[in-house]
Design a protein that fits this description.
This protein is an alpha+beta fold. A hairpin with a 2-residue loop joins strand 15 and strand 16. The protein has a 6-stranded antiparallel beta barrel with strand order 10-13-14-17-16-15. A 6-stranded antiparallel beta barrel has the order 4-5-6-9-8-7. Strands 1-2 form a two-stranded parallel ribbon. The chain contains 7 helices and 17 strands.
């Protein structure tokens, strides 16, 4: 899985930033751009073993506006670009590859709507030619803070970021309970045996697995909050590798799910254990996720949220 960001992607190695579709596009791989160029609003996450997630109201979409015509005075692009999770009343957790590599005038917004794509489509008709108004119709603007050492080495790329938001505006617009973060080295203490018997769930707004079409493979869908079961595969110093193989009953993440949550049920409590970063290009096999219980992740998060 390459970066799961849309058409501005860089997931490690390409990131799962969503390939920006009809309205957006900056730095994505050509394949990703083609994917969303014709995509219609529909399911996110992989299509197999996945279901809508209206109850996961803490999971949101990262929306961006930016300039793409050489006139930075006003933005001319808008799209949802990644996924993420509210971890307190005013902090949205996502991936650093989702918040870096943009034009200087990029602005970030967060939406907790179930169907962000349909909201943006409706806003485009209501506010034609006004990306800022379109973004504001579905999302609340915030300030991005990326890890200062991103991109780091493959062993720990520091691929983590937060969006600070006005808590009052978020509360007025959506009802949600922030996700619970893991305690220090909680995954490490469980170890592979404990993690192998843990129930895992991935959520996000991303596209579906590769599908064959007249022009080759594409990744349809995206922009709708979905969830799917995944299973533990391996634990590394900075990573949790999760299996997305359909025969085992798993679903999985794809482009646009970058920064989104991977929940683990630990001691009867749902814990936001890791965030989606990368995986196999067609989105069939493995979700490579960034651990949130490590010293590096906790050190970055400490100024923004109370850690357990």
């Amino acid at each position: 899985m390459t970066s799961l960001r849309p058409a501005t992607s860089r997931r490690i190695p390409a990131g799962l930033r969503a390939p920006t579709r009809r309205r957006a596009a900056v730095v994505t791989a050509a394949a990703c751009t083609a994917v969303l160029a014709t995509a219609l609003p529909s399911s996110a996450i992989n299509s197999y073993n996945a279901t809508p997630a209206p109850e996961r109201t803490e999971v949101g979409a990262l929306v961006a506006t930016w300039d793409n015509d050489g006139n930075p005075a006003t933005p001319d692009r808008v799209d949802w670009v990644c996924s993420g999770t509210m971890i307190d009343a005013d902090t949205f957790l996502t991936a650093a590859h989702c918040t870096t590599g943009w034009p200087a005038n990029v602005k970030f917004y967060v939406s907790l709507d179930q169907d962000v794509q349909s909201g943006l489509d409706a806003a485009a008709k209501k506010y034609p030619g006004d990306p800022a108004a379109q973004a504001g119709a579905v999302a609340v603007q915030g300030a991005a803070h990326s890890h200062p050492d991103y991109p780091g080495p493959a062993s720990d790329p520091h691929d983590i970021a937060v969006i600070e938001l006005p808590a009052a505006r978020m509360k007025a617009r959506w009802s949600f309970t922030p996700a619970a973060l893991p305690t220090a080295n909680q995954l490490g203490k469980l170890g592979p045996r404990g993690l192998n018997t843990t129930d895992w769930l991935v959520a996000g707004y991303g596209t579906q697995e590769a599908a064959n079409g007249p022009g080759g493979q594409a990744h349809p869908g995206g922009g709708v909050r979905m969830k799917a079961p995944v299973t533990f595969d391996a634990l590394n110093d900075a990573w949790v590798r999760l299996a997305m193989t359909a025969p085992q009953g798993n679903g999985g993440a794809c482009y646009g799910d970058s920064g989104g949550p991977n929940f683990a049920m630990v001691g009867g409590k749902r814990v936001l254990a890791a965030t989606t970063i990368t995986g196999d290009t067609p989105c069939y096999a493995t979700n490579v996720t960034y651990r949130l219980d490590t010293p590096g992740a906790r050190s970055f998060l400490k100024p923004f949220v109370a850690l357990p």
